[in-house]
Structures are given as C-alpha cells and as structure tokens.
Amino acid sequence: MSDTGTGEKTGATARHNGIVSLVRQRGFMAIEALASHFDVTVQTIRRDLNLLADEGRVLRYHGGAGLPSSIENIDYTARQVMNPAEKDRIARLVAQEIPAHASLFINIGTTTEAVARALAGHQGLQVITNNLNVASLLTRGTDFKVILTGGTVRNRDGGIVGAASCDMIGQFRVDFGIIGISGIDEDGTLLDFDADEVRAAQAILRNSRQVFLVADHTKFARRPMVRMGSITEVTALFTDEPPPPAIARLLQEHDVALKVAAKE
Question: Tens digits of per-residue pLDDT, 42-99?
Fold first, then answer.
C-alpha cells in the first residue's frame, strides 16, 4: 500500500475514534456538526457513521448518531432533529384516527409533539397535556381547549412532572391517550428514563378509553431502565417500520392494532 493510502487509512481511523468519543461525551452528534468538526464532507461522515453502526460502536439515526444508554436520555435538542420525517409520518397517521370534538391526553416527547402539529387542522378538540410544547403548538390558530396539568416544569424539554401532574390527569376520562416512549424491550415492556414521567404515562393509560402508542423504529433498539407497562396494554401502536417479529406476535396475540406509516 502506498504512503498516501496508509495515511488516508490512519486518518479515517483517527476520525472514527474521534466520532465515537464525541458521541460518548454528548449523547448525540448531528452529521453537519461532525463534518464541520473534522473538516470533511457530510458524505464522508455518513459513510463513517454507517461503518461505525455496522461495527456496533454507535447507533445510526436520521441526521446523526448516538449511543445507547439505560440511565440517561439523549438531549432534547438532539432528539428534535432525530428521524423528523418518520415522526411526521407517524403523526399524520395518528391524526387521521382522531375525530373532531374528541378529548385527548398527550404526554411528553418529540413524537407526541409531532402529533400535536398534525392535529392543527382538526376542530373542537379538548386536550389535557403535561407538555408545554404541546400546549404552545395547540393554542396557535385553533379553537381547541387546552388544559395544562400542574406540577414542576423541566427546563430541558418543557415536560411537566410530579405528583400534581399525575393527580390532575386522574381527574379526567378521555377518548384517546397519545403517549410516546423511549424504548420497547423484546418482551413488549415499555421503558423510559424518568420515573416521574412514567407515572404520568401510567395515569394516562388508566384514564383513556383508547391508548395510541407512538414510537419510531429506533425505540426497538433502546433499553431504558424504568418500566412503564406493556405494549399489550395499548389499543394501537403507530410506528414507521414493521416491528421485530416477537413484538409483532405480541400485538397479534393481544389484539393490539399495528399502524405502520410507510414512506410516501
């Protein structure tokens, strides 16, 4: 091999190690940020991330890369740019199932926020939410009645958590509960990172006539540590790709509807 070829290989190896190091430090790195940091093209970074994902060193997401963690979620601003097209497709599919003048719970998460945007064309909805971002989205240019739960507002993502939030959710009985989740285990266990957030989601499960779980395909590869419940407890799963076979069997056995938002 020529000296030039050896140099290119050494440079690529150093860059790969640097990418992994940055992702470990920050939880998620966007492609554009990595290209700027290493002064290479976005095409080069895409190839790097695909290779690193094949080697199991990073998890490849639309727009960047992250690392799996059971104790800490990816930063909210990073999650906002992860799989936006997939989340929007899921959200539009959910919106098609929600009639005018329905009552809903919508919980914390970037996918549920996409659902809120997709609902903007509806009429007469009443929404109870523990998500400041959802409330902001649904009060602009709509006739909706939006009720915010009490509780403590998290600065990092606008989520409202705590006992007051769960107590207020328990005061209502609604048509649809729309919930997101951080991870789904192979046995169908629904998992998240924050115990307070889980308690609010459990309250939504108990107080909704139908529960729609919204989760893009990456959630099947994540293993947070806090148990929220089982996928068998929801009415329907809305996702962007067919789930793993074990999950698909569970859905069928427990009569949980599977709604896949295929690419358009």
Answer: 999 999 999 988 776 788 877 888 766 554 565 656 666 567 889 999 999 999 999 9
Whole-prediction pTM value?
Answer: 0.75
Best CA proximity match to 182, nearest among 76, 39, 63 = 76
- Pick 83 or 190 by higher pLDDT: 190
Range of the domain at 33: 3-67
Those residues whose C-beta lies under 8 Å from the C-beta of residue 61, and which sit 6 or more positions away, are: 28, 82, 83, 218
What is the CATH classification number for the domain harbouring 102?
3.40.50.1360
